[in-house]
Amino acid sequence: MRVLIVEDDEVIASTMSRGLRLHGYVVEHVPSAEAASAALLNEQFDLAIVDLGLPQEDGTSLVRRIRRTNRTLPVVVVTARDSIADRVDTLDLGADDYLVKPIALAELLARCRAHIRRARVVASSQVQIGSLGVDLEGRRVTVASESLDLTRREWLVLEYLAINAGRIVSKERLLDAISSAPQDLSLNSVEAVVSRLRAKLGEAARIRTIRGLGYRLDDEP
Amino acid sequence: MIRPLWNTIRGRLLAYLLPPLVLLLAAGVYLDYKTGAAPVRDAYDHALASAAFAIALHAQSATQPAELARVAGGIDNLLHPGARARAYYVVRADGRVLAGEADLPIATVGETNPVFFDARFRGEAVRVVTYSPPGRQPLTVSVAETTAERDRATLRLLVSEVLTDIVQLLATVVLVWIGVALALRPMLRLGDQIAMRSPRELSPLDAQAAPGEVRALVTELNRLFATLGDAARAQQHFLANAAHQMRTPLAGMLIQLDLLITEVGESRVRQDLVALRRSAQNLAHTADQLLTLARADPAVHLADEFAPLDCGRLIEDVVAQNLDRALLKGIDLGAQIEPVRIDCVGWLIREVLTNLVDNAIRYVPVGGHVTVRCGANGGRAYLEVEDDGAGIPPDQRQAVRQRFYRVPNTPGSGCGLGLAIADEVARLHGAELEIGDCDGVGTRVRLRFPEAIELRSADTA
Q1: A92 Cβ under 8 Å from any chain B Cβ
Q2: Is ipTM beyond 0.85?
Q3: Quick check: B347 and A83 CB within 8 A?
Q4: Which of the ends of chain B has fewer CB neighbours closer than 10 A, N or C?
Q5: Is the previous residue joined to A102 through a cis bond, with omega within 30 degrees of 0?
Q6: Which part of chain A has CATH 1.10.10.10?
Q7: CA-CA distances (angstroms) from residue B340 to B337, B344, B380, B452?
Q8: What is the pLDDT of residues B81-95, one digit of tens each?
C-alpha cells in the first residue's frame, strides 16, 4: 500500500514514514504542495497524509486540488491548527479525516487502515473484517468462507453497517435503510433485526450498541 | 438606577432655563400691571368726574340748598349703586359750604379742571375730584369715593395677569421637557444601540446617523472599538501561532518515541521510553491546555467567531472519537441527544466537551457509565457529561475550577486545567458551569447556556 506524506517538518515526516514502513506501507514523502501534485500525477497512491501549514501553497488548497482530480483517494489531514473553522473547511473540501497534532503513531495507523479499507470497499465492493466477508455486489455474506443465510432486512442492516464499519450509525439511518416507508416501522424492529444478526454472526463480527447514538460494527476483529 | 434630576440633560436645561423664565414672568407681570392699572384708574376717575359735573349742574340751577342736598345726596347711587364703596361730596360757593361734608378736602382749581388727587378722609383712603364749572358764580364741587372698589378692580386685573403668565410659564416648562425628550431621542437611541450590543461586538457605529453634537463621541468610540478589535485579533493570532509552534516539535518528539518503542522490542530501554513518552505526552497535554485556557479568555474573542453549532452532531463526534478508549477500559460511553443548537465559538466548546469526556473516562472505574447529554431547559440550552464514578466531594466543587487544582489523592496525571478551561469558556459564552452529582452518585458537569437555538424538525433530518 502506497502512502504519500505531504509534510514540511523533517522530523515528523521522517518519523511518520518510518512508522508506516514498519507496518508494511510504501511511503513517499514530499515537503510541499507543488511536489505533492507532481508525485500524484506520476504515481498511484492508496492514501495521502497532508499537513495544512505548508510553505507557499497551503494544505487546504492542495486538498481541494486532490479532490478535483481524484475522487477516491483518501486524504487524512494532520495539522497543528485546531480551530473548528479549519476542521469544517477541510472536511467540506473533501478531506476524509482531520487529526490535530500531536498524534500518537497508533492512532495514525488505525486511521490509515480504516480509510484505506473504506476506499477499497468502494473499489472492490468487498468488505473484509477478520473472518467476516461482505460482498456488496453479490449480496453475499461469508464467515470464514462459509456462506451465511440472511433475511432481506438482516442483509440491508449488515450492508449499511459494513459500508460504515468503524463508524457510529443511528437507528434512524438503519430504519431508512430497511424500509422504503420508515413510518410503518418502529425503531424496535431495527433492534430486533440487529439482535438476530448478532446471533447469526456470533464471534465473527461485533455489532456494538452505542447508547443513545446507535450501532457500530467494529472494524478491527 | 435612578439618577438625580440635576444630572440629566433635561434637569440641567430646566435648571438653566427656570430662573430667567421666572424673572421674565415677574417683569411681565409688573409691566402688565403698570399698563393695565392706568385705564382702570382713568375709568373710575371719569365716573367720579361725571358725578362732580352733575352736582355742579344742579348747584347752578337749584335755588334751595336743601334741594341741592337731596339731589347730591344720591351720588352714592349715581357712582356705584349698592357698592361697597362710599362716596362723599361738598359744594362751596365763595368759600361757603352750600351742601355736603364741610371737611372734605378740596383742591385749588387752576389750569387743570377738574383736578384729581388722593387723600384720606375719616380714616379711609379716598380719591377726590374737584371741579369748578366756568360761569359767573364762583362754584367749587368736590366729590370723593373710598378706594376699596377700584382697588378690588386693579387686584382682579393683577390676579388675572399673574395667572395667565404662570400658565404660560408652565406651558413653556412642559414644552421644553417634551422638546428636549424629542431632541434627545437620537442620542438615547444611540445609547440603546451601544447597550444592546454584545460586549464582543466591536463593529463601528454609524457616525453619520448620530446627531452632530455627539458625532465626535461616536467617532472616538469607533476608534476605541477598532483598537480593541485589533488587540484581540493580534492576541488570537499570537496564541494560534504559539499553539502551532509548540505542537509541531512536540508532535515530532511523540511520534519519534512511538516509533522507538515499537522498534526497540521488549527490554529495560523500552520501559524507560514508555515512561519518557508518558512525560512528553503530559507536557504536550499541559501546553495544549494552557494555550486553550489563554485562548478562551473573553477579552480576545470577537463576535464574528460565534456561529450556531448543532450540539447533537458535536456529541456524536466527540463520543465517536473517544469510544475506543472507553471500550478499552470497559466503560459504557453513551449519549442522550435532544436536538438543540447554540451560538458559540465551536472549537472551544468541542475542546471543553472533549476534556470533560476525557476526564470522565480517565476517572470512572472499569464497568462504569459515562453519558453525554444536550438539550434545552426553560429556553436555555445545556451540554453535560455525567458519570457514575467516585464524584467530586461537594466541598471541592468550587476549588476544582481553579487552575492547576487537583482533588487530593486523585489517581492519574491530569494537569488540573480541564475544569478551569470549562469555567473560562462558560464565562466567554455567558453560560454557567454547574458541577454536581446525579442523586448523590458520580459527577455531573453541566454547561448551561443563556439561550438555545431550537432546531426545526427539518434541520434534524
Answers
A1: no
A2: no
A3: yes
A4: N
A5: yes
A6: 126-217
A7: 8, 13, 10, 7
A8: 556 677 888 888 877
